[in-house]
Write a structure and sequence with these properties.
The protein is about 35% helix and about 25% strand. By secondary structure, the protein is an alpha+beta fold. The protein has one domain.
Length: about 230
């Protein structure tokens, strides 16, 4: 199945500045709901100017079992307003295993970044002072239109257009109401974890605003609210 679209959390803080950047990045990292099996960070990339440039540095943090303080300390050694910092980790999400035809809550990639105000021509203004790549958007929005309200459900339209055997198997499995109900429940749990994280960020940072954005939804936040409201 093609699952290319990603979802993102963007966070802007009040009076963000070079002096506040690393301390706030450290606090942002402390809020991340990292995987129960691996609750430290795997990698840190420090990127100057824009994504087209070679990184200033890339560090494998796995042998260090690095937490937020260690990541922030390494980032602080390269403090510049035209620099971005990307920390990689994992978090636990419900995902449907198409081969086993069952749900598994397992570690998925999670990237947490901090954008200096002058990095990539000021991309922080649109992408957030802090940004998290949450992984595939279907973890939160569902595949195609499967979790749309019944009045606007066009799941058959979305899935019958492809003859890929994996998609066919998935569609046939979800045709059973009990399986679709479980799909809804597991997706809702992922959303609730995400919303809980957003609330946690607001407890430790002077948040000006947040945005949940995805590559495949016009309004991701409205979509998630819609899924949570369905019963």
């Amino acid at each position: 199945m093609v699952m290319a679209n990603h979802a993102y959390l963007r966070v802007w803080t009040c009076d963000f500045s070079l002096e506040k950047m690393i301390p706030e990045f450290a606090r942002f990292l402390t809020t991340a709901p990292l995987s129960a099996a691996h609750d430290t960070f795997d990698e840190l990339i420090v990127q100057a100017v824009d994504p087209g440039e070679s990184p200033i540095g890339e560090w494998d943090l796995r042998p260090l079992h690095a937490g937020p303080a260690e990541v922030a300390a390494m980032a602080a050694q390269h403090l510049h307003s035209d620099t971005a910092y990307i920390a990689s980790a994992t978090w636990d999400l419900w995902a449907f295993d198409i081969d086993a035809l069952k749900w598994q809550r397992k570690p998925q990639p999670l990237e947490l970044g901090c954008h200096g105000l002058d990095y990539d021509d000021g991309i922080a203004a649109s992408a957030g002072h802090f940004q998290a790549d949450l992984g595939f958007e279907h973890f939160f929005t569902g595949h195609g239109r499967l979790l749309r309200p019944a009045t606007t459900d066009h799941s058959s339209e979305s899935f019958h257009s492809s003859e890929h055997p994996v998609e066919h198997t998935f569609r046939q499995w979800m045709a059973a109401s009990s399986n679709l109900k479980e799909y809804h429940a597991k997706t809702r749990e992922n959303i609730q974890q995400l919303f809980g994280w957003v609330d946690a960020i607001a407890q430790v940072l002077p948040v000006e605003r947040t945005e949940l954005w995805s590559e495949g939804e016009d309004n991701m936040e409205a979509r998630l609210d819609e899924i949570l409201a369905q019963r």
